[in-house]
Amino acid sequence: QQQVKQSPQSLIVQKGGISIINCAYENTAFDYFPWYQQFPGKGPALLIAIRPDVSEKKEGRFTISFNKSAKQFSLHIMDSQPGDSATYFCAASKETSGSRLTFGEGTQLTVNP
Amino acid sequence: DTAVSQTPKYLVTQMGNDKSIKCEQNLGHDTMYWYKQDSKKFLKIMFSYNNKELIINETVPNRFSPKSPDKAHLNLHINSLELGDSAVYFCASSQFTGGRPGELFFGEGSRLTVL
User: Fold this and answer.
1) In this complex, do B106 and A32 lie within 8 Å of one another by their Cβ atoms?
2) Pairwise CA distance, residues B29 & B106, whole Å
3) Backbone region of residue A60 per phi and psi (left: phi > 0; alpha: psi in -120 to 50; beta: other values)
4) CB spacing of B103 vs A34 below 8 angstroms
5) Tens digit of each residue's pLDDT (9 = 90 or more) over A50-76
């Protein structure tokens, strides 16, 4: 059972554009929602994370929007750059119990120059 | 100084062989993980150890056996390799107690190819 669904599978954006990746989760007990970024040949790395007590978190050009009632969260990359081209994974866990991190299927982002 | 290091980075072997992958973390974390990433890039947890104790054991064939000699090391031994074992295996660590267990630090991966 896939508890975190991610879309789209792939995304092509022009340089300077906005990239938007969406995730939906099922388990209402989840309380920690990170996004990981993976470049080819490297391991995933934590990019930004949010907890359900806030609806938005921004770090530089990266913003997470969180909708608790809809059980959805999304990553927005403003002013997308070719260097942002990577695979992005959303994830969720019940951090207070240290439960395992459940990952979405991943989105391959390509930013064209 | 690499935070989570795995060896080897590449492994090419024949079906039926046995192979091991080693992982070490120097972050002082108390929890380590093995993840498998398939050809579609899906990340699936296999095992997790907290202070040398197995705490997560997903539905993984018995041919896969993890071992944690201490909290800084987690190795993965695979017996009787099959074609379907071909994947990238990632080691990761996090601080479970008093930290943020969901903040995983990943190694660079070990690409296993079974011929």
Assistant:
1) no
2) 12
3) left
4) yes
5) 998 999 999 999 999 999 999 999 999
